[in-house]
Design goal:
Elements: E1 12-16, H1 21-32, E2 36-41, H2 50-53, E3 61-64, H3 70-80, E4 84-87, H4 94-99, H5 101-120, E5 127-131, H6 157-175, H7 182-185, E6 188-194, E7 197-198, H8 208-218, E8 222-224, E9 230-232, E10 234-235, H9 237-250, H10 255-258, E11 261-264, E12 271-273, H11 274-285, E13 291-293, H12 310-316, H13 324-339, H14 344-360
Parallel strand pairs: 1-2, 1-4, 2-3, 4-5, 5-6, 6-11, 7-10, 8-13
Antiparallel strand pairs: 9-12
Helix pairs in contact: 3-5, 5-6, 8-11, 11-13, 13-14
Length: 362
Amino acid sequence: MPHPAFSWHGKRVFLTGHTGFKGGWLALWLASKGARVRGYALDPCTDPNLFTVARIDRVIDDIRGDIRDPGSLESAMQSFAPEVVFHMAAQPLVRLSYDDPIGTYETNVIGTARVLDSIRRTPSVRAVVSITTDKCYENKEWIWGYRETDPLGGYDPYSSSKACAEIVSAAYRQSYFSTAKLTEHKVALATARAGNVIGGGDWSLDRLIPDLVRGFLAGEPVPIRRPHAIRPWQHVLEPLAGYISLAEHLLSPNAAHYATAYNFGPADDDAQPVAWIVDKMTSFWGDGASWFLDEQEHVHEAGYLKLDASRARADLGWTPHLHLETALEWLVKWYRAWQAGADMHAYTLAQIAAYESLLAGT
C-alpha cells in the first residue's frame, strides 16, 4: 500500500478523464493529499454527475479537451510540467461501443497513443499509470481469475479497444520508456486493470448501479438483464488506492520493477452474481425498491469474469479493504445524502477519509 514516508504534497499530477466517475474520485483524493492536479477531459457526459455534484473544480485545475486532439493535449500537459500522469479518459461502456465502434477505438486506442506521445515530449514526467480494464483479457468464461500474463483479447469493440490500449502502452514502454534505459528517459510506465467499480456519484447510462439508483429514486421497478452474470465488484476507492500506490512505486528508486501491468480485483468471495447485488441494493435502499427480469434480447456480454490480483498484493502490498456488502452500503448512503441535499464535496471527502482510516489500520 502507500509508502508511509511518501508525500503527495506539491506533486504535479496530470489526470485525463477527471470529469468521469473514477476520475472524479481520484482527482478529489489526490487534491486532498496536497497534490497539484490538472485534469484534462471532455465535459461530463451525464447530468447529474460526480464532478459537478462534488464541486471538484474547487480543488483542481480543470481543463476541457479531447485526448484525440494532439495540439490541445500536448499544450495542456507541457505547460503544466507534471511529474505524474494518470490516464483514465476513455469511452467506458460495452453497449455504447456497439453503437459507436469507431469512436470507441479512436478514443481508447488512438487517444491512449496521443497521451503517451505527449508524455514522450514532456520531460518533467517520471511516472505514468495508464488505466484499462479487466475486460482486456480474452474471456474464456473460466472460473479462476485472469493473471497479467494471460492473453489479451475482447469480444466487443470496447473490450478489444482496451486490449489494444494495453498493447499500445507496452509498445511505447519498449520503444521509448524502456526499463533498461530508465536513467536516460526517466519515465516509468505501468498499466492498471480493474473490475466493475461501484460507488456514489456514478450516473452512467446502462450500468447496473446507476440504473438501480435511477429506478429507486423514481419509485419504479428496475429491469435487470443478466441476473446470473458474475463480475469482480469493488468500491471505486479500492482500485484507486492501487493506482495511487502504483504511482508511488513508479517514483521510487526501484521504479523499473513496477513498470508493468497490474490487476486490481476484489477478494474471491466478492465476485457475486448480478442478482445478489440487486437484492442487497433493494434491501439497503428500502422504500419498496424492486426489480424484474428483462427478457429482451441483448448484445453479448461476458457471463463470468474474475481477476487474480496476486502481483499487486506481492509487489505493492495492495489488498481490498471494503467487503462488497459494505461497499453497497456506502454507495447507498452517498446517494441518499445527495437526495437529501447534503454538501457532497464534504461527504465524498468524508468517505475518502473513512477509507484511508481503514488503510492506516493495516
